[in-house]
Amino acid sequence: MTPPPVFSFDNSYARLPDRLFARVRPTPVRWPRLWKLNDGLARELGLETSTLSQPEAARLFSGNELPAGAEPLALAYAGHQFGSFVPQLGDGRAILLGEVVGRDGKRRDIQLKGAGPTPFSRRGDGRAALGPVLREYVVSEAMAALGVPTTRALAAVTTGEWVARDKELPGAVITRVAASHLRVGTFQYFAVRRDTEALASLTTYALDRHFPEADRAAGEGLALLDAVIEAQANLVARWLGLGFVHGVMNTDNTAISGETLDYGPCAFLDEYHPQKKYSSIDHGGRYAFERQPDIALWNLGRLAESLSPLVSDDAERALAVAREHLARFQPRFQELHLAVLRSKLGLARAEDGDRALAADLFGLLASSEVDFTLFFRRLCDAAEDERADHRVAALFREPESFAGWARAWRARLHREDERPDARAAAMRRQNPAFIPRNHRIEEMIHAAITKADRGPFEALLRTLSRPYDDQPGAEHLAEPPRAHERVTQTFCGT
Ligand code: AMP
Ligand code: MG
User: Fold this and answer.
1) What are the sequence ranges of the domains in the chain?
2) Does residue 97 sit in helix, strand or coil?
3) How far is the CA of 124 from the centre of ligand 1 (A)?
4) Disulfide engineering: 45 pairs with which of 76, 102, 352, 459, CB 3.0-4.6 Å?
5) Ligand 1 site, CB within 6 A
6) Active site residues
């Protein structure tokens, strides 16, 4: 008797006009071995993994064996990379196997990243190295546990092959799960080709798939633009609340769904600084921490331009209307970001002075180079009991600089009648104890590729699955790096 299929595929993208993608099969690898299968996610997706053996799983998640019902494709897209337009990018090393509808009723893409060349590979080898695969696995799963919209990691396999980068590195494939892989760059690809028909089908598809409740009365182009403005404003507000720096917010890495997409040179802030950037290729700081909302808006501008043929036949009118809609981004982002900050500070109600209170704090954090995550976590204790203040103050160069701000904060807290323990508990659900710290990620990758040691990977994954809980025994994963452990630069590893 043949076992039931692992995936119940229903491939809606493959039913769209075929100029939206290229059909291509994964290229088998020499010696696939399962590094990790995400059982929890597999269950959420309703996958049938009960009869799956390790060798079988490795064959499926490396692309060596195509699961029943898969219709593998590489997606066409364009994109602005660091501000320069590239009319053809596309999946050069990622292959969509198909879509599944999870137990929550949501449709998701199952994609193999590192599965071999495609018609979009240009000079690339279509492969991925183990380091970036493990980084994406851990950081995307951490983001999910932190409650941030994100793609997920279903599996990682090693390939038994080497990939040539600066040096030879062990190869791997990650199975990425996404609400979809539609990006701003997908729309740009058809806009630059003046293919309005494809734009219209993509727009209908995106609305049906991601924003079925959107009001389409003013036309589908504007409906989609409004929905993506909201999704991106929310996403970037969440990033800023956690100190996340995406690192490569090109339009081809900006998901229409509003999920965090593409974990390349991303990083979490250790010490707070608004202009902080980590990516080795972001020379001008285009994608620095505090620039992210402006860049999101810039990317939305490119989406608006791409959708403008659907807004009006009169190009100038279309752009004028799009500009009006784009103007809603900044105030909306501000509102969402302030809501995030209020919850981090333990404020249940809104008051006019809240933005200034937060701005004063960020000024102090920057000038004292205070660890972002540790500060807010310790502030939860201070909200419960003033006797914990000295542990917060100890994070500053001059402890008195915290005391002044703390007086203003306490006066503000006293105008609400929340119980201190309840307030602190609520704050601990907004201010994680654990984030994927850059030095711990590097350490995990080093252990994996030099010693085939999976211990640090498993420990990070386990701890980061409950980022808002104190976890005795895992304190070393909560602490900031010591001077010699600091990571100052990250690499995209393509
Ligand atoms: P990324 O930096 O991963 O967003 O990739 C940007 C573009 O480069 C996309 O079109 C990728 O498919 C392509 N790309 C990145 N790495 C490779 C690779 N190793 N082989 C082929 N294409 C790649
Ligand atoms: Mg990308």
Assistant:
1) 13-178, 347-428
2) strand
3) 7
4) 102
5) 89-93, 120-121, 124-127, 252-253, 262, 264, 492, 494
6) 252
